[in-house]
Amino acid sequence: MILLEIALWFSLLSLIAFGGMPAVMPEMQRLVVEHGWATPAEFVQLFAVGQAAPGPNVLIVSLIGWKVSGLAGALVALLAVCGPAAVISWWVSELWTRFKDNPWRLALSRAIAPLVVGLILASGTILAMPSGPDWRTWLIALASAGAFLATKVNPLWILAVGGVAGSILLS
Amino acid sequence: MPITPPRNLFELFTGFLAIGARSFGGVMPWAHRTMVEERRWLTPADFAETIGLCQFLPGPNIGNASIVLGKRWFGLSGAVVAFLGLMGFPFIWVMALGALYQEYSFLPEVKAVVTGVGVAGAGLILGTAVKLGRDLVRKPAALVLVAACFGAVGVARFSMYLVLPVALVLALVASRRNWL
Fold first, then answer.
1. Residues of A with CB below 8 A from B106's CB?
2. pLDDT beyond 90 at A139
């Protein structure tokens, strides 16, 4: 039963998504590719469609679910990736305030920070190579990273320029 | 400025709807504008504290924030209503966009544009990593952990289900020794 499989795998993903969705893209890509739900190139394209929509970047999972199993797949994937995290948030939010000055809370948040940075770097690297290493996709990715860091324009414009660059360089 | 939390579920719903529907190009700035500046549901400090918690928790950050804040104001129904308000519009939008894309994805030109958008999005993620990493530059142990996570997951492609527990234990040890 494909819906059950979607539910299971995306709930598992939810539990390791420290640092939010960007940090978990390497594992999501592996999941999608190994199940034959999409190729690495298609995964980047689905990621692109998700980026062009408003709202949380988690919505890429509903595109994957939809590709695999239609509207039901889309809903199941979204609820699965949000559900376990939501339950944890529900229970932890009070503890978090109660242990405000606890040294372990501080130690934990300091410990997680470098892991998240490393994982997000890995995500960006994997997504920048939709069909293996290619100077053209690297050029677009690094230019947009530079623009993001150097200016305060809405990232949507950077994505739009990326689309134009893609139509020139990649077709 | 007095703080005015949402008075009922309808206000909570429309607030999160306003965040979801407008947040092209990144949801956090819109969450701040809606909840802190326009509706004054939270003080800036309270917003920062809540978002800090949600960045620490696993899962989609703003999705977690809708649960935490919905619960704070209206319990379970608040959490559900805030989540639906946040996700409703973007979900419909992304489905429509996905359908449109599938219709035209056989065209090589469309594929090229969409791939360009995707790798530009990858660049935004790389930029975010650099931004977050700036605070860690003067901590050698943190840089080692960054490099180890990147190498294990991004280059060697080890599973995060293996890498994360190991890295977390090592990071906690380093953190308790004040290396981070």
1. none
2. yes
